[in-house]
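Table S2 (text version). Query chain:
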Amino acid sequence: MAERKPIESWLTDMDGVLIHEGVPIPGADAFIKKLRESGKPFLVLTNNSIYTPRDLHARLRRMGLDVPVENIWTSALATAQFLGDQRPDGTAYVIGEAGLTTALHDIGYVLTDHEPDYVVLGETRTYSFEAMTQAVRLINKGARFICTNPDETGPSAEGPLPATGAVAALITKATGKKPYFAGKPNPLMMRTGLNTLGAHSETSAMIGDRMDTDVLAGMEAGMQTFLVLTGLTGPDQVENYPYRPSKVVDSIADLVDWI
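Corresponding structure-token output:
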């Protein structure tokens, strides 16, 4: 097996790697600090499309993690870039929050419920039956179905919440049309992120807490992959998958010296 080249750029998931339920994971502050001091390109990734990078920058900063706006990459940004490449200056009917609508406005998209090119489904805490019904009708009339991410549930202090993937399944059942998911585990999100950094997969690494999204997407994009055991995938679950991360570590604290 060929030896991997030194890591020159880093991509890391946010929830389960840097923070957990609004609290920084020990070592996250040291990891971000050393990344910034090193000058190496990096991105903090999230499949959550609710917040804009500015929102996330402010939220992380309140937790003691100083991540610049330009170093945050969301599934909403990846979705917008994909749509901008596919159909510049298009139209979309959107179910989602400011993170998604802002990203689409920024690429010149018009948001409308009149014969849109796309129905775009993202994360929201207030999925409405009326909006889902409108989405079903527009897709049946020919709108293409796009989703920011396939996560079926999301975390909350009270327990799991239905998320984009679950609502997408409802719309698919009603229309017979499956969506295209832009976020993890689609390696598209990794590749577009690397492109924004001007980085190459051969010298990049992906850190995540989930085998089925973070590790899979990083591996398929050609990067080294690190699984941390502070999130959803436990140590006893790693062997259940037909692929492996490059390395398994207890937490982000174990990777500070890798930078």
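Notes on Table S2: The domain at 9-47+184-258 is CATH 3.40.50.1000 (Rossmann fold). The mean pLDDT is 95.
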